[in-house]
Design goal:
The chain has 377 residues and is α/β, with parallel strands linked by helices. Helices cover 43% and strands 15% of the residues. It has 15 helices and 14 strands. A three-stranded parallel beta sheet has the order 1-4-7. Strands 12-14-13 form a three-stranded antiparallel beta sheet. A hairpin with a 2-residue loop joins β5 and β6. The longest helix is centred in the last third of the chain and has 19 residues. The radius of gyration is 26 Å and the shape is globular. The relative contact order is 0.08.
Length: 377
């Protein structure tokens, strides 16, 4: 996917995280020649991709280089002060990154930050975060296997695709306003897909970026503002994801890009609604827990509490109490009282204790009595 984006984008740079250094991303300072002692600047990937796209694969493998991206993603520039050279280079680039979770699979009991081992400062700078899970689906698996076999056997790839979700017969087209963005992009059964050639698409994107500068209409601005205020009102609670003006700026950028995609100089209310649907879809991926329930206490940046971090916090409190009382035995009533005092918020306390028992932190010693395994007593 990243290779395709790098090939289609008019100006793009593709790098792999496990073979990339901080200097390779930003700026390298080197001596010009043997005789002269002057220094020269050599641009890195972010500077070379100015006003373009920088695609970074294996993003989780470059943990030591994450700090170099903070200024570029926030200020759209890279500052350097080395060997008497003080300057600032433009890095107005869009960053498209792909990362793999630790352990080889994504654990929905953990937050995005816990799965990817990334800091909150970096993850909060991405406008959209999508979680791509390989879930079994008969129709999608059949389509992908057919495509792969056509590539290796020399057969022609079929141009008629089935829907990636539940296969539905093509219904009567409804009005554009009543359709969501997902419905507009869905390919129905029996529908022929006319793929745009990559060279034409590259010219189209280049023309749109150069000549189309959309402005947000008052109606679209009102829709975005209402959605932002709704997020601030509902989710600014204890242990929830902080909603700041950074999210509002992301909505504005995406709305302008949605209008630029159709070569329009004005971003309308429908563009704003499409972007809101896209943002909600991204948030649904981030905040869905292992039970499939939306839990807004789980922050993508790691500021909220997942069930895993709740358990760690509770075990640490039990460890402190065990050291003070010289006893590792706790009754269920004592455990509930300690959890209430520590403001440990879980939906099912019995299931919470059961999970700690399964993980080996607590050992059941009798009816309604548990022993803390990490204690020395």
């Amino acid at each position: 996917m990243l290779q395709s984006v790098a090939n289609i984008a008019p100006r793009s740079v593709y790098v792999c995280g496990n073979t990339t250094t901080t200097a390779g991303l930003t700026v390298t300072l080197s001596k010009e020649g043997k005789g002269s002692g002057d220094y020269a600047l050599e641009a890195g990937a972010l500077v070379l991709a100015d006003q373009g796209c920088c695609c970074i694969d294996e993003f989780d493998k470059m943990s030591s280089q994450h700090q170099a991206l903070l200024e570029a993603m926030e200020q759209q520039s890279i500052s350097i002060a080395k060997a008497g050279i003080v300057c600032s280079l433009p890095a107005r680039t869009s960053i498209l990154a792909a990362a793999n979770p630790t352990g080889g699979h994504y654990n929905k009991a953990k937050t995005v930050s816990e799965n990817l081992k990334m800091g909150s400062a970096l993850l909060s700078r991405f406008d959209l975060v999508f979680i791509m899970l390989d879930t079994p689906n008969e129709e999608m698996d059949d389509m992908l296997s057919e495509h792969v076999m056509c590539l290796h056997s020399g057969r022609t790839t079929p141009t008629s695709f089935m829907s990636l979700g539940n296969v539905q017969e093509k219904e009567k087209p409804s009005t554009a306003k009543s359709q969501s963005l997902k419905e507009k992009l869905k390919v129905h059964k029996g529908e022929v897909v006319d793929v745009i050639p990559s060279q034409l698409l590259r010219k189209y994107i280049s023309y749109a970026r150069k000549f189309v500068q959309p402005h947000i209409t008052p109606q679209a601005a009102q829709v975005l503002q209402e959605f932002y205020l709704l997020l601030r009102k509902n989710y600014m609670t204890q242990d929830s994801t902080p909603i700041t003006t950074r999210q509002l700026e992301s909505l504005i950028r995406l709305t302008e890009a949605r209008a630029r995609l159709e070569l329009r100089t004005q971003a309308t209310e429908s563009d704003a609604q499409d972007v809101i649907n896209l943002m909600i879809y991204s948030m649904r991926d981030i905040y869905t827990n292992e039970s499939g329930v939306l839990d807004f206490r789980r922050a993508q940046m790691g500021t909220g509490m997942s069930e895993k971090s709740q358990g760690k916090k509770f075990i640490a409190i039990l460890q402190q109490i065990s050291e003070k009382t010289n006893s590792a035995l706790f009754s269920v009533q004592q455990i509930k009282k300690i959890a209430q005092d520590a403001k440990i918020q879980v939906k099912d306390f019995g299931a919470f204790i059961f999970s700690l028992n399964n993980e080996g932190f607590l050992l059941k010693k009798g009816p309604k009595v548990y022993q803390l395994q990490t204690s020395n007593f």
